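name: query_chain
kind: protein
chains: 1
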Amino acid sequence: MNGPFHRRLVPARPDLAAAHLRGRVAAERFAPGRPARVAPSLLDLTLDPNPTGERATQLLHGEVFVVYEERPDGLVWGQAQLDGYVGYVARDGLGPQRGAGRPVTAIWSQSYQRPSVQARVLGELPLLADVPVSGSTSGFARLRDGGHVPLPHLTPSAGDPVAQALRFVGAPYLWGGRSIRGIDCSGLVQIAHLACGVALPRDTDMQVELAGAPLPPDAALARGDLVFWRGHVALMIDGQTLIHANAHHMAVAVERLADVEERVLAARGGPVTARRRP
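structure:
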């Protein structure tokens, strides 16, 4: 079970592992896991048990997180069900398990106290947040746990991953981010595909190994192809233009591939390392 992504994708440590891994990994004890749902708009996940540690990724409102360890420092250790990411999150950021709901399709939405645009906002909802809908009233979806979300914000959105990614143009760059409030390069690629029902791994090093099929160096690039540098990924809009969340602009930007290649080489970041077609 060991590998380059083991720590981030397999809920197993020397002292504790998920019960379903019994017989496959060595651990001092095994836990069955308790499913919970992410309560706030966004919930930071760290790889180490440090509340102020570096954000590895973010979980979205309503995501299922399976808890394997409750700690006295207010953190829990477990695994996100959506993409398998393993790490530590704040215990008070999790609510009780419930049935699956409907995904938010707006780039960002709100839950209102009553079905009115003038009502008090109860909470913020990112793209792909899962909300438990029980009915509808006056153009709003009524949620089982309270609140109302505009029905247009739950309407299935058409388009391919490129069209979804283009909705994020101008969003600030944020290491580990997964929403319009802040997003990183691999987060943009993952969310854009998830919005179209296509599962991709979370991090760049996972995507370069596992996302789709590799393209030969001489193959023409097309819309939707992924281009990788060391520690970075971009999504091709067409054969010459790409979209990516990047620290140069500190934002999601559209650029010519040739310009990015030149800039990265000048900064000694190296050439393109791989090209893949999801």
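note: The mean pLDDT is 96.
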